[in-house]
Specification:
Layout lengths: L1 E6 L19 E2 L2 E2 H10 L5 E6 L3 H9 L6 E4 L6 H7 L8 E5 L2 E3 L1 H7 L5 E6 L7 E6 L2 E7 L8 E9 L12 H10 L5 E4 L3 E3 L5 H10 L5 E2 L2 E2 L4 E3 L2 E3 L4 E2 L4 E3 L2 E3 L4 E2 L4 E2 L3 E3 L4 E2 L4 E7 L4 E2 L4 E7 L4 E2 L4 E2 L2 E7 L2 E7 L1 E3 L4 E2 L4 E3 L1 E3 L4 E2 L4 E3 L2 E2 L4 E2 L1
Parallel strand pairs: 1-4, 1-6, 4-5, 8-12, 14-17, 15-18, 16-19, 17-20, 18-21, 19-22, 20-23, 21-24, 22-25, 23-25, 24-26, 25-27, 26-28, 27-29, 27-32, 28-33, 29-34, 32-35, 33-36, 34-37, 35-38, 36-39
Antiparallel strand pairs: 2-3, 6-11, 7-13, 8-11, 9-10, 30-31
Amino acid sequence: MQAVILAAGEGKRVRPLTRSRPKALIPVANRPIIDYVIDALLKNGIRDIIVVVGYRKEQVTRFLNQLDVPVEVVVQHKQLGTADALRCAESKITGDFLVLPGDNYIDPRSIARINGIPNAMLVREHPNPSNFGVVMLKDGYVMEIVEKPEHAQSLMVSTGIYSLKKEVFSYIRGNDLTDGIAAMIRQGIRVQGVPADDWQDAIFAWDLLKMNRRLLHQIPPEREGTISRQAIIQGTVHIGKGSTIGPNTIITGPVVIGNDCTIGPNCCILPNTSIGSRVTIEPFTQLGDAVIMDDTSIGSHSRIMDTIIGERCSLADHSSAGTATGLLEIEGAAVRSQFGAILGDSVVSGPFSTYRNAILGNNVIVEEQKSITSRIIPDGSTVI
């Protein structure tokens, strides 16, 4: 069995995190999303893997070249859609194959359920089905797929994961793979709907916090680096090489901390927190339900909750980010959101700054004592 992973898209609704990296490479629980997809395939004995790259293709290719398993790379030169991406790999496909998005989490058991079934799709109920292709089932088979309807008639959605025969290419006319599957169904070809065991997409940036909570439960406990005897570590916690945990710091898992970090003294790391490598957390700071990417520093006496912080950010002392509910305009649509802050790469934030339901683009500078609530600050802005 072959597998084709579609990892050519940008993920515009996840900006600013995808300005400098494709969505498939966003780290969740300190691993790129696509790494979980490849791992699920390998655990099912599927090693013939093709990855279609496009947006920031060099970054994806560089990551794939570091893997222990050989992966064939195909380039989609223009990001025209999922069907077009799959067509780019057509010449490499020799028989029945799986199709998977590279920016969704999928577990190995779900792959096992669909593997080997000709013409099938993984489906799962979702509380917000209008963001997906809504699937109408009858007796376990797909009767209709309605792409992102305004009023969904079902909670069952397509995960974008298919088991297909090569004949599917004769039904693909446009650029959306869902249309090709729908054409097959109209021609009388039965497509089985197989319930997924565990699957998650991140439609918007704050959805990554939920994905992070889910995937942190998979981390193996490990304590490397230097840990003070006065530190208290509870639950499943992974601490990387070269990291230093200062005295009177409390870490409650699940938490993952990368290599060469400096945390504390007197810090509190609450559950569901991922901290990348070379991160500095200064004393008397509290983190929880957060994703902190590489080379970021957070000043003393700060409280950062329900927040994603990109690479190379610098938050001064007494910074605060906490959950609030609001409306944000994403890709021209008003979207209800609930989180603390989403910070792109290289954000510089002054002391006593406060964020609630706020998105800051890359290279944003925020001067001291600013409060930003339910706003999107564009890349390169200075807030004075």
